[in-house]
Structure formats: C-alpha cells, structure tokens
Amino acid sequence: MSRVLPLLVVPACLFAVQPSWASQPDFHLQAVPAIVYKVDDPGGASTSSFVFDIAVICSTDCELTPISARVELSSAGSIIERQDWTKEMLAKIKRLRYRIEADTPLMSPMRAFTLPEAFDVRFYFRHPQALAIDSAAVRLTVADAKGRRVEQVLGIPIQYYQQKTALTFPIRGHGIIGQDYITNGGHGGFWNGFAIDIDGLDLKDGELSDANENAADAGWGREILAPAAGIVVYVRNDVPNGPHYGEEPDSDYYKPLHDPVMAYAGNCVIIDHGNSEYSVMMHMQPGSVTVKVGDRVATGQVMGKLGSSGDAVGPHLHYQLQSGPKLFRDQSLPVRFQNMDVPTLSRGHYFVAK
C-alpha cells in the first residue's frame, strides 16, 4: 500500500483555515481519484462531465460531521459557478466508500484500497464544453463530537485524458455495451469509473440470450483479444463461472478461493502497454486464459474466452484502461478504440467490431 497512497495526493492547493481556539479537529481532504478527468457526454449534447469524491482523512478521531461545503468551478482562473451545500444536503450524500467495516464483504475491492476516513462525499458535474472548466475548489467545514469546527480547502485540477496507446476493440463481431462510464450512470469507483461492459449479440436475431443459462448467451465463449501489444503483468485462471445467469455471486462463492478480493474480477488478464497504460480484461471462462505473466503479446492475440467468472451477473467482458498494474488500486482512464465508429461507447450502443 505504501506505493499507492502517493498516487492519490492531488497536485493541488491544500490549506486549513484555523479557528482561534485550540484542539480543533485534525483532518485533511483528499480527492479520489487522484487525477480528475472530464469526458464529453454521449448523444451530441456538447456537454462534458466529471465526478470525484472528497474523503475526509483523520489523524486521530474519525467521528466528524460535515457542516457545510462550497464548490467553485473555474476556467483559466475565472470562477464559472459556485455551489453551496448545507448540513442537511451533505448528510444525504455522505458515505463510507474507503473504510473497512465489520460488514465489509470478504471480496470487496475496498479491502485492496482503504483510507482512514471519517466520511466521503461525491460531487458530480455536467456543463457545456464551451465553458472549458479546468479546476474545482472545495471548501468543507466539519465538526467533531464536541461541536468544534474547522474548515479545509482543496484545489483540484480538471482535465481531459490524452490516451497514448492505439487500442483496438477486445472482441470481434456483433455486440452491445451493457454498462459504461461513471459519468453516464455506469461503473461507480475510482478504479473502474471509465470501464465498459461488453455483451455479445446473436447475428441472426440480435438477442443476448435464449435461455436463463450462461452457455445460451450469445457472447459465451467468444475470443477475447489483446487490444494492443504489451507485456502480461497479471493473470488469473481459476475462478469458476457464476452459478446462474442473472444472479450475483454471494460470499460462499468466494470463500474457497485464494485471494477473494482479486477473485472479484474473475479470470483476468492485465497487459502493460507502456506509458502508464494498462488494459484489464475480466470475467473470462476458467481455464480459457492462454497467456502467463511475462508473456509479450501482439495486438489481436487471443487472451481467453468470454465468461461470467467473479462478480458478473451474466456473461460479458469487463474492459478498462488504467494507470498502473494494480487492480482496485490504480486509477481507471477514459478510453477510445481506433476501430470503432463512435468516440465513446455508451450504454445501449450496438456495435460490429471487425
């Protein structure tokens, strides 16, 4: 974990406004993910969106309550918008996304990435692209159990991601995007916020499945291909397929497996493309993975077969580009494929990949 935490320190302005009395709550603010990327929204709306969590990190007492927040969005040094959040509003959105609790599931990705947080709040923004928002300043006031208050301010750069690797789509044939980015109501974590779920479709009738069985799914067993050349840095090939189509595995599914947290991803391959870009492909059929750690692979090389292993409620390929080799720890990145006909593959988008 020692190599992960520095990645989450935003290169931003962080300072405390100190009250006049002593013994104020001791905490600081941390943005998750470490770097906040905005993406253009699908559908030609000419808007862009970005999402981030503000985690309140404690040094000692973690019993803190949010009192108020102000968020200022800016472009080239000029404030574009200012939002004020009351105590009542913050109470409705505060969560514990990064702290392990007694009821945290055995296989939860939170067990791979945890913070000593009192709470966190998630902020979501969508604005016209023409406004060119490039930073956010979050001013948060909290109180401890004795009612003592203190305020912190965190400045966060907002930017587009510039992809370095030319990627091709990791499956071929007809299909549909089942779930997409966090900015469009899809994947919800910093580690998978820009992931997509890829489902196969039957060429003849355009259906996903003709029966409530994994093997009847139109994408079942389809070859998973390396989207670009690189070196394999992680492989798992022993996780069984989910018990039934449409059912999420329970804790008993993971108990017999070693490293249940990584089993959450099912049978998985991670490829290092260089330039801090890594392709992650999850939920493949057990025993189907054809590569091992250290292999150098070529674009289009078969990695395995589409399945439903790990946290999959039906056969699909979960694909994400991320900034490092560690699943659940390194940040996901917006992704584009050079052989697809649209810049962003959004939920419900039909495709034919050749």
Q: What can be said about this structure in brief?
A:
With 354 residues, the protein is mainly beta.
Task: Calculate the mean pLDDT score and round it.
Answer: 89
Look at the helices and sheets and give the structural class: mainly beta
Shape: globular
Q: What's the helix-strand series?
A: EEEEEEEHEEEEEEEEHHEEEEEEE
Can you tell me the residue ranges where pLDDT is under 50 for at least 5 consecutive residues?
Answer: 1-21
SS field, number of helical segments: 3
How much helix is in the residues? under 10%
Distance between the termini: 40 Å
The protein's oligomeric status is single chain
User: Strand portion, in percent?
Assistant: 35-45%
Count of individual beta strands: 22
Computed over alpha carbons, the radius of gyration is 21 Å
What about the largest sheet? 9 strands, antiparallel
Provide an overview of this structure.
4% of the residues lie in helices and 37% in strands. The protein is mainly beta. Strands 12, 13, 15, 16, 17, 18, 20, 21 and 22 form a nine-stranded antiparallel sheet that branches. Strands 1, 3, 6, 7, 10 and 11 form a six-stranded mixed sheet that branches. Strands 2, 4, 5, 8 and 9 form a five-stranded antiparallel sheet that branches. The relative contact order is 0.17. Mean pLDDT is 89; it is low at 1-21.
